[in-house]
Amino acid sequence: MTITSILRNAILLLCWAVVPSLAQPAIRFVDKDATGTPIDGTTWSRAYRTLQAALDNVPPSGTTQIWVAEGTYRPSKQAVTGVPRSVTFTMKNALEIYGGFAGTEALTPISPTNDPRTPGHETILDGGFAMDCEWDGLQV
């Protein structure tokens, strides 16, 4: 092996190790009032109309955040077929779901040092029960 090939391999190994850490999380959008097509969740105008549609269409890897615009969203999947009160949002691992968006925010992933949300845009996940709680900008 020559010095050149050793250096080239070292640089390739370094790039292979560093590049994934620089990747931005993919974001998918949900807005019940969106009107754009195709409905693929890649922008606010092309946002999924329901949270469950976004959850169902998350690729196996890549998407790590789902942003939900203001409004009320209801679950649609029955955990027990034929039992209407068993409706639920079927979540997936390794996803971060955030609410409280106006539906116009710029694509900048939420982190401890960056939060593009502004007050006054309530996002409600309503299962039809009397008890409520608030969790990271989502009223559940």
What does this structure look like?
This protein is of the alpha/beta class. The protein has one domain (26-139). It has helices at residues 3-22, 51-56; strands spanning 26-30, 63-69, 71-73, 77-78, 87-88, 96-101, 123-125, 134-135, 138-139. Strands 3-7-9-8 form a 4-stranded mixed β-sheet, with no helix packed on it. Strand 8 and strand 9 form a beta hairpin. The radius of gyration is 20 Å and the shape is globular.
What labels describe this entry?
140 residues, alpha/beta, four-stranded mixed β-sheet, 2 helices, 19% helix, globular
List the helices and strands and how they pair.
Elements: H1 3-22, E1 26-30, H2 51-56, E2 63-69, E3 71-73, E4 77-78, E5 87-88, E6 96-101, E7 123-125, E8 134-135, E9 138-139
Parallel strand pairs: 1-2, 2-6, 3-7, 7-9
Antiparallel strand pairs: 4-5, 8-9
Number of helices: 2
Identify the overall geometry: globular
Query: Which percent bin holds the helix content?
Result: 10-25%
Question: Which structural class do you get from the secondary structure elements?
Answer: alpha/beta
**Low-confidence stretches at least 5 residues in length (pLDDT < 50)?**
15-22
Overall number of strands: 9
Rg from alpha-carbon coordinates: 20 Å
Strand order of the largest sheet: 3-7-9-8
Brief characterization of the structure:
With 140 residues, the protein is α/β, with parallel strands linked by helices. It is built from two helices and nine strands; from the N terminus they run αβαββββββββ.
